[in-house]
Amino acid sequence: xxxxxxxxxxxxxxxxxxxxxxxxxxxxxxxxxxxxxxxxxxxxxxxxxxxxxxxxxxxxxxxxxxxxxxxxxxxxxxxxxxxxxxxxxxxxxxxxxxxxxxxxxxxxxxxxxxxxxxxxxxxxxxxxxxxxxxxxxxxxxxxxxxxxxxxxxxxxxxxxxxxxxxxxxxxxxxxxxxxxxxxxxxxxxxxxxxxxxxxxxxxxxxxxxxxxxxxxxxxxxxxxxxxxxxxxxxxxxxxxxxxxxxxxxxxxxxxxxxxxxxxxxxxxxxxxxxxxxxxxxxxxxxxxxxxxxxxxxxxxxxxxxxxxxxxxxxxxxxxxxxxxxxxxxxxxxxxxxxxxxxxxxxxxxxxxxxxxxxxxxxxxxxxxxxxxxxxxxxxxxxxxxxx
Length: 387
Ligand code: 0PR
Description:
alpha/beta; Aspartate Aminotransferase, domain 1; Aspartate Aminotransferase, domain 2; 2 domains; four-stranded antiparallel beta sheet; 12 helices; 13 strands; globular; binds ligand 0PR
């Protein structure tokens, strides 16, 4: 730290330098991120609530009311009439909260080492869960479609099964597990089921609006105990904005810690001091767009994903790994290693990511990606592969 403060002009000169080193979503070059440019309405709402702290929610009654309202809206979107939850920092925190609740419930009736049944397609936040909570992983195999092989699930359930995790929009491929049948198994075995819909939560309800048969992935399936749904992914909210929704009040209350000298007598979040700005931004967004607005956004990213898929599928030297269900696509090439291709694309400025299973180039088509970006990407990809 300097002895004396610096001028504002000087500081902002430096800030501009740092800022210019960052990539921005508007460039259209960020093709491997699940975040996107925050919507202007969300930014305005966020700024307005910058000084709020939901860790001491009695001081910020309005913001606190908004959080309840947002959780109700998200819960209702996921077919739950009386949801309990919080706006948190992201999918990681949401998943940790759900698994902590599941572990506390397990420990009320069991003394063994808790086992978590999960697919290897689960997000790496579950690796954090496993080590932080000392839980034993039991991996359920994936079928040839890279989804949980439901036929293998029953056999993996033991008296030490603490919970099952299923994914509605896998991180690497954007695929949706067969939640309906997984839920039936969880329900009949009385096992806690958490659905990680960090990505799909803000997409599938809108896809379902004009789709028959509907994709069953939420609390409509009675075995589902909790869900992650992140506003800072397809909800278009600024980071940090994750969402955790529990089916029952007593689930959330398992996390309650007494906060004697604060304006409320307990907290049910992992973090203490936490911004209300994310809640305000999410509240503004869901009211501004409504289901119809979000449906348009989701339709448009899915149209572009389909457009990209169709081109890639017919391209020489390219093999698309799976048919997209959400806004993710993966492909490999028969004349270039995946990691080499990733590096070559970077030379052209494209930031794609690489999935682990299967090992492939992974594209995430968030709302900042437009058709002209894809057209240019395809030209560059052809150049690289046919050179
Ligand atoms: N669950 C699922 C299904 C996810 O895909 C993710 C993150 C999480 C949970 C964890 O969410 P948080 O990162 O909000 O805690 N998925 C993205 C990923 O790992 C996160 C991301 C976003 C990574 C933008 C990079 C990036 O530029 O790919």
